[in-house]
Amino acid sequence: MHLFIQKIKKNRIAYYLIIPALICMILVHILPMLWGFIISFSDLDLYTISDWSKAPFIGIGNYLEGLDINSPTGGRFLRSLWNITYYGIAVISIGYFIGLGVALILNQEFIGRTIVRGLILLPYIIPDSVAYSVWRFMFQARIGIVNKYLLSWGLISETKVWLVGDKSIYAVMVASIWKGWPFTCLILLAGLQTIPFELYDAAKIDGASIWQQFRYITFPLLMPITSVLLLLSTLWNFNAFNQFYVMLGDDPGVAAEVPSTLILREAFNSFHYGIGAAMSVILMAIMLIFSILYIKKIRPGEVEH
Amino acid sequence: MNRTTKRLTERIFLYFAVIIILISVLVPFAWMISGSFKTRLEIQASDSKIAGKEPSWIPRNFTLVNYKTVNKEVKIFDYFKNSIIISLGTMFFSVVIATLAAYAISRFSFPGRTAYSISVLSTQMFPGILFLIPYFVMFIWIRKIIGLPMRDTYWGMIFTYTSFSLPFSIWMLRGYLNTIPREIDEQAQIDGCSKAGALFRVIIPLARPGIAAVGIYGFVMAWNEVLFASVLTGNETTTVAIGILRYITAQEARWGGMMAACILVSLPVLIFFTVLQKQFVQGLVAGATKG
């Protein structure tokens, strides 16, 4: 006990350093989270929103409705969970491989490398609403450039309507991959640069092939940054909203409905704040499972060298 | 001879790959620029199925009208001002707060560090949509109880965005700091620096690329954010991210105007990024390990 207090005293500065961040986190994350949990058990609507404590308590009613596959809201919510998973697997895996491939290419010496490294970050750096507005324009059926090329290459014979109906989720996937891979690439490139050249020099002297260098030096040394990257992509992916909202509007349709768009409409268009909050809590529970798995894997408390 | 041929093929393949990458990155930008110089009539009349009327890369009737009237129906300049204020505020506060917290996690083994690191990592995982409803309710409640307006104010938005960017900023910066060998700050301490002194004299200069990355992240995050902006901003604080969508309404689609606005909205982030990119490419870690 004495030792413990001494340890706290010795590290006094560390506590001062984290206080500002801690306050922000409590006010914006932890309190609203608890609050959201409470709201999810109440029938909070347009009439009770001005004083949340007056909203009638209805127990797990919101959860039952949100998860009932036979109710229109529940059916759409379950579908939205499937959609976001499907979308996430496609976007994250394709994005990672493109990012890794490009990072390996850009780690080579060639003329204009600095400029190319800057240019590939353009999709990441421009605002989401800009990028997805442009893609929305490109995917327009009659006046868009996507259909023009698909027609001229003979891949389709009729102009396809991309942004309404079953195909719309694929249009969003393409745009999201385009927008997302440069970030992956940037992080992997930073990771590649932390690998000392000496390792490769030594490997070359030992006669290692390019594949062996990748397999035994690059890939293992990129593993720590890769796991953080995949964790963050998975977590952000469940948050995906901008691409769906900008490209497809506030009601993307059943095939491209995701939790965020559904919750937003449920709360701020239909004014069912309670059901919206309950859906948010369910979403959080799912993310909790993922993040516990990852946190166990990453073990942030350990001292890394 | 054989060796030079092999090397030449490798080079050609490399440049070919680079060109493919660049094309796929740049096509939407080309389409955006081209669209911003087209008349509304040209865009609406184009049709992929009719020969001679296909949407084209080069505008058939080059016009500047989209730029001249960009602020006419949608007040994009006002949104611009709002976004600049909110994004700069977010950048400043998240860099300062994240640097301090990341340094604490990276260099001190204080009791509670693991719990704190895990909570930073977990706040990152909660989807923004989870906070939106309670946050909105909280804003209304704070206004009612203390009379403090939060919704539709600059500082309300700056506070919100700073807090959102913090978990990732802290996490990334912690990663950067961990790659700086501890021997460097131990050396600084032997040379007479306090632990806090080592942060300002040794670590911050070495971590510049990481800090720049966090700054860019904060700015871009606030400039980009759509979900909270769509609910928490009003007439006074509408940001460009939301404003840009107003060119397309149920009545008319002003694609040309939208593309012109897209270019204007992208400019600040592009300029800002170009200036700071040096910090990025400098490659902090390479410098530290070599030195």
UniProtKB/TrEMBL annotation, chain B:
<dbReference type="GO" id="GO:0005886">
    <property type="term" value="C:plasma membrane"/>
</dbReference>
<feature type="domain" description="ABC transmembrane type-1">
    <location>
        <begin position="80"/>
        <end position="276"/>
    </location>
</feature>
<feature type="transmembrane region" description="Helical">
    <location>
        <begin position="12"/>
        <end position="33"/>
    </location>
</feature>
<dbReference type="GO" id="GO:0055085">
    <property type="term" value="P:transmembrane transport"/>
</dbReference>
<comment type="similarity">
    <text>Belongs to the binding-protein-dependent transport system permease family.</text>
</comment>
<feature type="transmembrane region" description="Helical">
    <location>
        <begin position="118"/>
        <end position="142"/>
    </location>
</feature>
<keyword id="KW-1003">Cell membrane</keyword>
<feature type="transmembrane region" description="Helical">
    <location>
        <begin position="84"/>
        <end position="106"/>
    </location>
</feature>
<feature type="transmembrane region" description="Helical">
    <location>
        <begin position="255"/>
        <end position="276"/>
    </location>
</feature>
<feature type="transmembrane region" description="Helical">
    <location>
        <begin position="154"/>
        <end position="177"/>
    </location>
</feature>
<feature type="transmembrane region" description="Helical">
    <location>
        <begin position="226"/>
        <end position="248"/>
    </location>
</feature>
<keyword id="KW-0812">Transmembrane</keyword>
<keyword id="KW-0472">Membrane</keyword>
<dbReference type="InterPro" id="IPR000515">
    <property type="entry name" value="MetI-like"/>
</dbReference>
<dbReference type="InterPro" id="IPR050901">
    <property type="entry name" value="BP-dep_ABC_trans_perm"/>
</dbReference>
<keyword id="KW-0813">Transport</keyword>
<dbReference type="InterPro" id="IPR035906">
    <property type="entry name" value="MetI-like_sf"/>
</dbReference>
<feature type="transmembrane region" description="Helical">
    <location>
        <begin position="198"/>
        <end position="220"/>
    </location>
</feature>
<dbReference type="Pfam" id="PF00528">
    <property type="entry name" value="BPD_transp_1"/>
</dbReference>
<keyword id="KW-1133">Transmembrane helix</keyword>
<protein>
    <submittedName>
        <fullName>ABC transporter permease</fullName>
    </submittedName>
</protein>
